[in-house]
Amino acid sequence: MKFTSLTAITVALSCLAGTSAWAAELPAAQQSAIIDSVERGREHLGATALAIWEFAEVGYQETQSSALLQQDLTAAGFTITAGIAGQPTAFVASFKNGKGPVIALLAEFDALPGLSQAVSPVEQSLHAIAGHGCGHNLFGAASSHAAIAVRQWMIDNNIKGELRLYGTPAEEGGSAKAFMVRDGLFNDVDVALHWHPATVNSASQGTTKANVSGKFRFYGTSSHASGAPDRGRSALDAVEAMNAMANMMREHIPDGTRIHYVITDGGEAPNVVPNYAESYYYVRHGDPEVVLSVIERLKKAAEGAALGTETRYEFQQIGGVYSMMPNGALMSVMDRNLHRVGGITWTPEETAFASKLQQTLASQPPLSSVGEIQPAKLSFDGAGGSTDVSDVSWVVPTVGLATATFVPGSAGHSWQNTAAAGSSIGVKGAVVAAKTLALTAAELFVSPETIAAATTELHERRGADFVYRPLVGDGPPQLNYRGDGK
User: What is the residue-wise DSSP string for 154-203?
Assistant: First the structure.
């Protein structure tokens, strides 16, 4: 499997932000109508986002969250196809109005385990185990309401084409979109749009890290840990031996590689030799080839650990995603529309909440930054995490944006983010995202030149001989990856 190096490819400067001579901007009256449409739905958008925040459902278990978004979209006139790509909580909402471009919006809605938090500027965990520390409750609601506004604009102006909203579960480790891409659900899409909650407002586009994840399960023999230790073979010993080898491996892997793990099952009682233990690993790097190489080395470490402890092991792959393919042509359009919408203004009460929350942070940038739009940049540094949006970006020209839904200085996947995502601070950022997505999608419907330029850029970046080979392999989605998986 050969992948094209993103950093080795250059694209004409005309693809960068601020040079969008091909873009057909919407008439001012239509822009205003779209913004007004989102604004009229602001209260419902917020109610939907906060309801999903309360559900706090983890990957592939988002039954209430998915149903609520489907309900909103059905009421708005979309046709729903549910249970796509072998995922019960995934869906596609479609509105067709004759022949024309197919524009897709992506909507996520899964929560993270272990991040339960009240809407409070101080840490205050609830009884629930999951929380929206990545703001996907805002993501799903804003994308859906952007789609609703664009549909109405298409009807009012007799715009030809198809608008789709992809309800995509399990972004946090489940690689749902990769299975959708593998199953051909994006084959006829012209452009895909997404957004993500953040601490700033920005249309910058960059690469991410490719990622393969999976669970290493070890099986041993139980015995009394004191009365008959010689008869036992500890599966936990095997997990710990593998982890030790993985940690020594860090010195001898390519720069930029990330290996993370947790022990998800280490036994039940100290006086019982564990006959079962499990660790959950992620491997990341900007180059998918490196990821595949390192995960194979981890399998050898697991094999050695099993041999040394006289246990046996199994590996179950959970996810696998590409690195992001940025698109400068689309960035230009998204950036212009984000500037048109503008930044965020907090009330005195929201500012007071943010100020108190920020006291818990090591970094404390000015709170006023949420009212600003950051300069749009095209980056190839491969920094940050991983996302299954990346797989979409290798087969369809894709663009995203970030809006300030979190308090400046907050870290991703934190209780601080969970608190903000359940507050009016988060909702205000989601409204900015919905307006920007709606304007950008509408503009693309009437600008075949922009779509053509974005498609040409994608083909140049990925290379003429590129063939998509999913890193998730050929198995089904692991619907219980947040459970015990046994």
Answer: HHHHT--EEEEEEEE--TTTT-HHHHHHHTTTTTT-SEEEEEEEESS-B-
For residue 3, what pLDDT is reported? 47
pLDDT of 23: 57
**What's at 446, amino acid-wise?**
V
| Nearest-angstrom CA–CA distance, 350 and 358 | 12
Q: For residue 150, what are its two tokens?
A: 């664009």
Nearest Cα neighbor of 253 from 287, 219, 223 is: 287
Fill in the DSSP letter of residue 98: S
**What domains can you pick out in the chain, each with its CATH number?**
6-207+325-462 (3.40.630.10), 210-321 (3.30.70.360)
> In this structure, what are the phi and psi dihedrals at residue 386, rounded to the nearest 5 degrees?
-135, 155
Position 126 scores a pLDDT of: 76
Determine the pLDDT at residue 187.
97
For the stretch 433-451, pLDDT in tens is 999 999 999 999 999 999 9
CA distance readout (Å), 45 to 87, 149, 175: 25, 12, 26
- What does each C-alpha distance from 483 to 61, 84, 158, 175, 479 come to in angstroms? 10, 21, 47, 16, 9
Chain centroid to CA 246: 27
Please answer whether residues 338 and 201 qualify as being in contact, where contact means their C-beta atoms are separated by less than 8 angstroms: yes
What pLDDT score does 4 carry? 45
The neighbouring-strand residues paired with 258 are 284
**At what angle are helices 63-75 and 42-55 packed, to 10 degrees?**
160
Q: State residue 19's pLDDT score.
A: 42
**What's the CA gap between 7 and 377, in Å, rounded?**
15
| Tokens encoding 148 | 């609703």
Count CB atoms within 10 A of the CB of residue 471: 25
3-state secondary structure of 482: coil
| Residue 186 contacts residue 105 (beta carbons within 8 Å) | no
pLDDT digits (tens, 9 = 90+) for 226-246: 999 999 999 999 999 999 999
As to burial, measured by CB atoms within 10 angstroms (0-12 exposed, 13-18 middle, 19+ buried), residue 150 is buried
The pLDDT value recorded for residue 190 is 98
Residues 6+ away with beta carbon under 8 Å from 250 = 257, 259
Whether the model clears a pTM of 0.85, i.e. scores above it, the answer is yes
CA angle 266, 268, 272 (to 5 degrees): 100
Residue 56 falls in which region: left (phi positive, over 0), alpha (psi -120 to 50) or beta = left
Could you say which residues of the chain have pLDDT below 50?
1-21, 485-486
Q: How far apart are CA 466 and CA 2, in angstroms?
A: 8
Residues in the chain: 486
The SS3 assignment for 99 reads coil
DSSP β-ladder status, 161-168 and 91-97: antiparallel
